[in-house]
Amino acid sequence: MGRVTASLDDLPLRDDLRGLTPYGAPQAPLPIALNVNENTHPIPDEVASDILDEIAVAIRDVNRYPDREFTALREGFAEYLGHGLQADQIWAGNGSNEVLQHILQAFGGPGRTAFGFAPTYSMYPLIAQGTGARWVPGVRQPDYTITPDEAAAQVREVDPDVILLCSPNNPTGTPLDLDVIEAVYEAARGIVVVDEAYWEFAPREAPSALSLLEGRPRLAVSRTMSKAFAFAGARVGYLAADAGFIDALRLVRLPYHLSALTQAAAVAALRNADVMLGMVDEIVEQRDRITATLEALGYSPHESWSNFVLFGGVADPKATWQRLYDRGVLIRDVGIPGHLRVTAGTEAETTAFLDALASIESAS
Ligand code: PMP
Q: Which of 32, 88, 95, 208 could lock onto 235 through a cystine, CB 3.0 to 4.6 A?
């Protein structure tokens, strides 16, 4: 590593970045890592070999730039998402973080405002501020739900350029009703993004915000392959919106931003969506087991439609986090007083977490 000779204070950093802290979920090599809502199941062997075959073909052409419009991948996402979507309504990036960054670059930026109901995904303020936009946090009920009327009133008051609605919400797991999204859209002048990163873990019969896209050109629905698809390391996120919205994102993306290898891997993974998503039911089962066991232990888990559970009733979150760490279990202190968040792992990992928690203390 190079010698650090300058602190940030010594560098001509943008004033609006001074004092910010980078994203920093700990990456510790512990046996049980349930801290960043990954899918802890490895991808099945038969899918891995299909992906390798696709990459083997793509590698022969890496002397050339990749398809800038990632056509095959967009067609794959359009088919996967259904809802009558066409390929020209799809966008993708290196993780949904990059897709969100493209939205903030196109519709945020200096002098503009981005808004979301706190607590919500910790990267929203950072991505917004990275483009020079101001982040304004809205408020939720004490149980983290939002009603359509309150949501619309807050949006009218702030009048944001970009609104980020996380459905279900990270870090709380809270579902978001479509009528809240509709009310926010009606009340807003700006762009409304529904981040459905964890959508595949929601009840099957729940309607996705994709069903609201028709006739709403300022609405976008983002998804990721990092969670249900067990593809976090490949870095593939995507969104669906009006084709005109997609044209705006083309203005800010770097040319050829999705590598030929990423495109090949994602196309092959999508082709195997049924097998890739085979783990979802089991993860949902472990999530519900976590909720039931935490209740039995005297904690207060919040309703979750995702692959993680936020639980209250933790007397000293830092101490509990550390004691779990010392037992080889990594979970997340998301900074909400009295709370910790844990990802649903395999049955064995989930058991290890629950046993470790039961062994250290009782809830407050
Ligand atoms: N949205 C939400 C709500 C998330 O929790 C995450 C990752 N934790 C992301 C987006 C970004 O994920 P990725 O860039 O891996 O697609």
A: 95
Best residue among 40, 97, 196 to mutate for probing ligand 1's pocket (most ligand atoms within 8 Å of CB) is 97
* 237 secondary structure, DSSP code: E
In the chain, where the domains are located: 25-42+279-360, 45-271
What does the DSSP 8-state code read for residue 114?
A: E
**What is the number of the ligand 1 atom nearest to the C-alpha of 237?**
16
Residues with Cβ < 8 Å from 24, sequence gap 6 or more?
none
Mean pLDDT, the chain, rounded, equals 96
- Tell which CATH architecture fits domain 45-271: 3-Layer(aba) Sandwich (3.40)
pLDDT on residue 268: 97
Kindly report the CATH number that applies to the domain delimited by 25-42+279-360.
Answer: 3.90.1150.10
Atom of ligand 1 nearest to the CA of 225: 16
Counting residues of the chain whose pLDDT is more than 90, the rounded percentage is 92
The CA 169 to ligand 1 mean position distance, Å, reads 11
Give the atom of ligand 1 at the shortest distance from the alpha carbon of 97: 14
Task: Give the span between the Cα atoms of 287 and 308, in whole angstroms.
Answer: 6
Amino acid making up residue 11: L
Tokens linked to 98: 């990059």
Per-residue pLDDT reduced to its tens digit, 127-141: 999 999 999 999 999
Mean pLDDT throughout 355-364? 82
